[in-house]
Amino acid sequence: MIKAAIIGVGQQGKRILQALQMIPNLEIIGVVDKSKAMLKSIDKGIKTYDDINEFYKENSIDLLCIATNGPSHCELVLQASKKKVKFIFLEKPMACSIIECEKIIKVITDNDIRLLVNHLRRLHPIYKWLKEKIISKEMGQIRSLNFLSMGIGLSAKATHWFDLSIFLLEEQNELISVTAQIDEQKMTNPRGAEFIDPGGIVILEFTNHCRSTIEQIEDGFCPLKIEAIFTNGYVEINEKTGIVKIMSNDNGKIKIENSLMSAHVDIIEGTKDMVLNLLSTDDIVSTALSAKKTIEILISAYSSDKTDKKVDINAGLNKNLYLPIT
Hints:
15 strands; globular
């Protein structure tokens, strides 16, 4: 029996709770949140704590799920390592700086801890299918990925698109540079005014004449739309409608069809699948190393916006630059 706990029971923490309740041979020992109001919303059958130290005094666990705001992530992972936690399920963003990411990677390596960062689209069938199309070159060479997304912001939303770009392209293409224009923040972050997370446009340049463009519109209205443009084909994924459109060009003969697969993303079901991957003996699908890359991209984006220049992702980024993100 796996003994599990959750720290942070806001919207995503509650989704994690529902996901854990779907997993057999797993017992939820308790949930932790500084907000007593949040804890009142938890089922009475689950023990609640408003202090993580008090929780550890009473309990030992196998699995810790961290769904707090970004600035607490590093310290909570370091603390969990001292408490001999074997599995850590960490919500994105992984951390607020590259140096924090490196601390997390060192401690999980030194203590043989399995840690997964919840970039759950890596396990979604439609994105696994798209990755296969890219690798097979069935529609020619991949030339561009385009992401159009609304809401707050480059950390809360766009880090998913950074990660998905890496996941889809990493087999044959290496990330070279980041160019960005970051918007002025238009709204107060619902997670707290201290968290700065505007929208903007970020261009990731890869080898083999390939790029990914992420447009995050903080106060716009649009469905999440993802386009993959090949030399002889086009795929459009709409997560809102679930529709996947496919267009192919075979020697001038154009074929248009809709995939039978749905692009809908069930966050609770996807989270459950990610936890099962973490608890298995399979390779972790979303590692600390891959999640660190999303923070490097975010740091590069802010640097590009400040200098009005393209940033070489491999050219000595400022590891200590701290972004108040969540």
